[in-house]
Amino acid sequence: MLLDAAGKSISERQRIPTPETPTPAAVLEELDKLSKLLPGFDRVSVGFPGIVKRGVTILAVNLHPAWANFPLQETLAKRWDKPVRVGNDADIAGYGAIQATGVELVMTLGTGIGAALFTNGHLVAGLELGHHPWLLGKSYEDYLGRRGLDKFGKKQWNMLLKEAIAQLEFVFNFDHLYLGGGNTKKINFDLPANVSVVSNESGLLGGVVLWRDQG
What we know:
CATH architecture of the domain at 92-205: 2-Layer Sandwich
CATH topology of the domain at 92-205: Nucleotidyltransferase, domain 5
Radius of gyration: 17 Å
Structural class: alpha/beta
Helix content: 25-40%
């Protein structure tokens, strides 16, 4: 999606399926196709589903091992001859969702579990909640990611999510929790007053703020 300087969309959202074997080469080829559908951009923000440090993708458990230590930011900047910033996808979704007041936690429910923590609008970098041990030595992702949903079914998945929300409030003392990702559509219980579901477009709209918060 193309955004203006205020973070408002000025184009339709474009989507291309992730390659069946999502190696860096295969994904970059699809990103080239996307770039041609969105002409006229002067800079690029990229949300990546894994650990990112200084534009390098460190680990992507749910994508492909070849993304380990891949210089995605530098590669795209050279490929498209534009300034590029790459960040964790949950972090960028958070930029688009938060109100920049107090302690705000963002959790995305999809193939895996993404998470981002903000204090007064500033990102606390490096949070990887999805892989943190939770119950019986298994991680949040084992229970609340796609494999957990497939294993336990929708009813138990909702019970586990409700329990996780209560536990996370004890851990982070958040003022607000934002839930995003495709599996939020499967939530069937009433959320607490300080928890809300946000649109998947927040992951796109937050791309502008990625440039503001990091200079």
